[in-house]
Amino acid sequence: MRPPSALESLRVQVRQIEGRHRRATTVLPFGLAAVDSRLPGGGLPCGALHEVAGGGNGALDAAAAALFTAGIAARTRGKVLWCVTRPDLFAPALSQAGLKSDRVIYLEGGDDKTVLACFEEGLRHGGLGAVVAEVARLPMTASRRLQLAAEGSGTIGIALRRWRRQTEASDFGQPTAATSRWRVSALPSTPLPVPGVGRPRWLIELIRCRAGESADFELEACDDTGHLRLPADLVHGPGQAEDGRRSASA
Amino acid sequence: MVLAADAAAQAAGLRVGMPATKAQALVQGLVIQDADPAADAEALERLALWMLQRFAPIVAADPPDGIVIDSTGADHLHGGEAAMLVTLIDKLAGVGLRARAAIADTWGGAHALARFSARPAYISDLGKAAADVSRLPIIALRLAPDLVDSLRVLGFDRVGDLLAQPRAPLALRFGPELGRRLDQALGRIAEPIEPIRPEALIEVRRAFAEPIGAAETIARYIGKLAAKLCDALEQKGLGARRLDLICHRVDNRAQAVRVGTGLPLRDAKRMTRLLSDKIETIDPGFGIEIMTLTATVAEPLAPKQAVSSLVEEPEPDVSGLIDLLANRVGEQNLYRMAPVASDVPERSVRHIPALAPETGAEWPGHWPRPSRLFAHPEPIDTVALLPDHPPASFTWRGVRRRVKRADGPERVFGEWWRRDPELAAVRDYFRIEDDAGERYWVYRAGDGEDPLTGSQRWFLHGIFG
Asked: What is the pLDDT of residues B303-314, one digit of tens each?
């Protein structure tokens, strides 16, 4: 048996190798016990890079992923910089997800390179609540720079991955330095007793999470304050709602 | 003699160079004004100053009827050369001036193309000036009229004819002027632009004993110039909105960098940061002799009291970041969205500057709106009951989808006060969900009954999250 002090000294060494005294990391809770309990620290860490992509057809249009991102950004304070290459985002929808129009500054970059450079500049500044960038390729080097920039300033950075062709979406399997990686796919909406489309539902997969385990959640879309909700038929249901379902894939 | 004639006069048959008495005989009640070259030159000077403030750091009047602009280092603020040229012509048309403009490698080339190309706005590709200019008549070369006449007598019609001739006999017969103008148009000899510098301009300058060239050295002197400029601005109580850095090289060429700011700026550190971001666009050549930093557009900037954190947390200032990004991607590519009172989705959003005051206005949230809206609605094939049922299935991008649930219609009427064809136009929007759970926003152009209201075809306009 190794004495516990050896383990402790090892941790100190690792911290020294990492090279910086992490500032006390604040987290942005989702406000749902089912999700927050899966995340180390009880929420999405601020001062970190996160990746969000859409599943299925969402890999091309990233419609649900954009709303999920808008919901996270809406719960931060301060202005939000949203960098895009294709200007097809519809601002009223973001407003309905809680991200008011006065808070969002849009930036149209000509290509991924410009967008990544502006993304990093926004993260370094530190005065923004969140920085979102819609990018297709996110190389390891770029993500590492972004992650360091976010750690330095404490701003939450979200890379909204969006590809032009379905075949390119396999890029999402490549490793990056992002702290967490999410996939959001649309599910059939909550059934209504009358004909019509109910409240939209999403399958939210936490594919990768630093110092945490992956998980799947089936949740209702953001309301007008950016909060996700448990589907009504699960709220009072048995334990299933509390811990979600474990995912075998990572 | 007629020196200039407007469009109406030209339509009546008047030509420049015609005797005034002949013109009066041609048109009854002709309005004639005496030429006033001094006032013309003054007006041209004023126009050049206006362009200096809005378009580029190096601008000069090119009498009698032109203005020459060195667009290097400034077109990024207007979204590229083509966009800049269009903006320039539109702005001038707004004040009643019909302008012709051209961008080329050289002053001579641009001068000739602006006046003698068929299009009012002409952009000559990099290195193509010789080919473009050689198609033009020889009068485009800025030669004296009698020289042009004698060249015509010899059968030279176009610049290309002259280029094909050996130079020595031409120089022997017509003097050095012809060769000089040809070389200027083709960029074989330099033709520096002497930029206008109005009296009130706030400018600081630094001459170097030894030419400098390294990026770090340039950055250091930008910092020193910015500090001096801030002192000068502070004495006058101004803040800079446009900053021009002009580097004069030892080979007598100027390299210019222009940066714009959203709010008046008087902070040496931020100025240095903005200008240093553009150092890579400066080509020092054999070295830079003189650097000047100018606040081309300056606005009053009064000191402001900081918000005490006792009462409320101050909002972090992002204007520095906005300026930096705007200079990188162009001002029109950095914006906020503001609501417009219109039911037509693509018209309900307008762009406002990123640093515009907060409007506080929001879109009405009665109906869900898609997070992605296509700029051009995509036609889809549907199976739908008329007049007011949602589609039962639709084919989009070659994939057939069955509709499980649908909401609608939400009827949007055309805005007849904008365009006449919209008087009867109607769109019926439906929010539909296919069996995979994907939600789309589709509409039918028309009300399903009356062919006057639209083509009754279906379009996919957006995707919900």
From this structure: 776 666 666 666
